[in-house]
């Protein structure tokens, strides 16, 4: 029997969480890439056979990232030197051509099995990677989330994908059938589809394909222990850099399987390791440039506004939705909760705070649709299975009050301007371009239905500029969660 121990470190959804912080009520520096890098370096010194893996969403979420359009993130990731990385939805935020440029900046391999250049039926990225370590061969491949495909399809019709779980599982089968021979001792899938979808995917995989582990992302799930489904270990490591996942596994060369394992979700703070001094110096140089450019104060709130969870109404979400609704002069304003990247903001708000909180610049478009269609949208976005950390949730403006009955799985009531919505009446609804383009998937209404009245209008080509000007002209404003979205 030839057994070998391996250590698998893994991160996901880092979202530009570059800097260490002292958390509320704490006294220690927590998170940040310098501390994370220090721990990875420490493990690489202490253990013989170490892999560091990232399951998507390295970019977006910080001003440093958006200022340099992800290039700074790739340079920082080069310090971490991951062994294998998979794509997440936010890797596409700056456009497909820019992603291909970022791939060239990266000194590490990015794998994906199910993203294709459709006209030529060729995979866009490297579909798999086999790493030889300690006499063992380890196969890696990656699977992408449907949200990525939504974004890509609006940028380039040449790109397509096998995006359902069934199709994704077959793509994994193609890779393993073609490249999994007797010499492959361990097979690891890097996904960005959410924890619940990882479980469903694992159920679909043929045991003969020999998949041993799924390292996932996208749903920001914090685990106490890995799931084990169909003989496959499944784990992810929350969100940001406050923690890192660690598997210590023993692999049997004869059976090509994991015969023993231990998993930990390790808190990253200044007790864990010394920070990587070179990386810290580089990040601080970027931070200094950004701070100087964006340090101007644009307004002061009456209090701190918060956005703790994207699945519920929040005070910060209320303010942003109201700001957009005012400029759009719309009955209903839908703002994707995931586009609000800060958990709190204020009372003093700098330009840096604003761009960190709302990094996505997009058009705002207003449409005219029927009350029945409005009801259909709210029944769709408020349904329970859209509030599972993987759905697309929304914040709404103060003219709206919607009540959803979870037990009955139906929209109980919907009012606009304190009047019940009438099926036959026409209303205006505004949203950002991303949600307009993906209205069928996210809102249960087609583009054709949105445009049927012939009265759509682009209100602004820059949501960021709208929000900045609104805040500059509304000092000492405040919001409290007031029951715009209610779940019973």
Q: Given the structure, what is the number of helices?
A: 15
CATH topology description of the largest domain: Purple Acid Phosphatase, chain A, domain 2
User: What is the average per-residue confidence, as pLDDT, rounded to a whole number?
Assistant: 92
CATH architecture of the largest domain: 4-Layer Sandwich
Q: How many domains would you count in the coordinates?
A: 2
* Strand portion: 25-35%
Shape: globular
Given as residue ranges, the uncertain stretches (5+ residues, pLDDT < 50) are: none
In order across it, which strands form the biggest sheet? 6-5-4-1-16-17
Tally of strands: 30
Assigned CATH class of the largest domain: Alpha Beta
* Proportion of residues in helical segments: 25-40%
Query: Mind telling me the CATH superfamily name of the largest domain?
Result: Metallo-dependent phosphatases
Cα separation of the termini: 58 Å
Largest sheet, in brief, is: 6 strands, mixed
What value does the Rg take, in angstroms? 23 Å
| Structural class by sheet pairing and helices | alpha/beta
Would you kindly provide a written description of the structure presented here, covering whatever features stand out?
This protein is an alpha/beta fold. It folds into two domains: 3-287, Purple Acid Phosphatase, chain A, domain 2; 295-487, 5'-Nucleotidase, C-terminal domain (5'-nucleotidase,  domain 2). It has 15 helices and 30 strands. Helix 1 packs antiparallel against helix 8, helix 6 packs across helix 7 (195-204) and helix 9 (315-328) crosses helix 15. The N and C termini lie far apart (58 Å).
């Amino acid at each position: 029997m030839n057994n070998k121990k391996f250590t698998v470190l893994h991160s996901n959804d880092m979202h530009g969480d570059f800097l260490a912080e002292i958390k509320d009520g704490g006294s220690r520096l927590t998170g940040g890439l310098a501390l994370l890098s220090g721990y990875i370096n420490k493990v690489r010194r202490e253990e013989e056979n170490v892999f560091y893996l990232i399951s998507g969403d390295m970019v977006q979420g910080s001003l440093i990232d958006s200022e340099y359009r992800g290039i700074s993130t790739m340079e920082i990731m080069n310090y971490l030197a991951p062994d294998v990385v998979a794509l997440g939805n936010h890797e596409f935020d700056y456009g497909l051509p820019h992603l291909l440029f970022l791939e060239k900046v990266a000194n590490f391999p990015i794998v994906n099995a199910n993203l294709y250049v459709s006209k030529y039926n060729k995979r866009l990225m490297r579909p798999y990677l086999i790493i030889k370590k300690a006499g063992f061969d380890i196969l890696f491949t990656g699977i992408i989330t449907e949200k990525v495909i939504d974004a890509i399809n609006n940028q380039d019709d040449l790109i397509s994908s096998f995006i359902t779980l069934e199709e994704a599982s077959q793509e994994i089968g193609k890779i393993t059938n073609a490249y999994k021979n007797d010499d492959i001792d361990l097979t690891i899938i890097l996904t960005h589809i959410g924890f619940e979808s990882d479980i469903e995917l694992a159920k679909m995989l043929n045991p003969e394909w020999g998949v041993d582990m799924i390292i996932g992302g996208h749903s920001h799930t914090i685990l106490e222990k890995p799931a084990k489904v169909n003989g496959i270990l499944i784990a992810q490591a929350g969100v940001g850099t406050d923690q890192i996942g660690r598997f210590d596994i023993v692999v049997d060369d004869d059976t090509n399987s994991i015969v023993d394992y231990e998993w930990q979700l390790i808190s990253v703070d200044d007790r864990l390791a010394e920070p990587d001094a070179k990386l810290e110096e580089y990040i601080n140089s970027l931070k200094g440039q950004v701070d100087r450019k964006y340090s101007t104060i644009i307004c002061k709130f009456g209090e701190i506004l918060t956005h703790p969870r994207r699945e519920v109404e929040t005070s910060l979400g209320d303010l942003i939705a109201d700001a957009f609704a005012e400029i759009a002069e719309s009955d209903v304003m839908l703002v994707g909760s995931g586009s609000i990247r800060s958990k709190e903001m204020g009372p003093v708000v700098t330009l840096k705070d604003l761009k960190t909180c709302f990094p996505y610049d997009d058009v705002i478009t207003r449409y005219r649709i029927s009350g029945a269609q409005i009801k259909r949208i709210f029944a769709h976005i408020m349904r329970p299975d859209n509030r599972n950390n993987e759905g697309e949730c929304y914040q709404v403006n103060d003219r709206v009050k919607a009540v959803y009955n979870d037990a009955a799985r139906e929209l109980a009531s919907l009012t606009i301007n304190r009047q019940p919505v009438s099926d036959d009446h026409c209303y205006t609804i505004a949203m950002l371009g991303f949600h307009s383009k993906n209205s069928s998937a996210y809102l249960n209404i087609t583009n054709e239905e949105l445009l049927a009245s012939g009265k759509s209008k682009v209100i602004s080509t820059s949501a960021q500029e709208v929000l900045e000007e609104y805040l500059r002209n509304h000092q000492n404003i405040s919001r409290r969660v007031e029951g715009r979205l209610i779940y019973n």
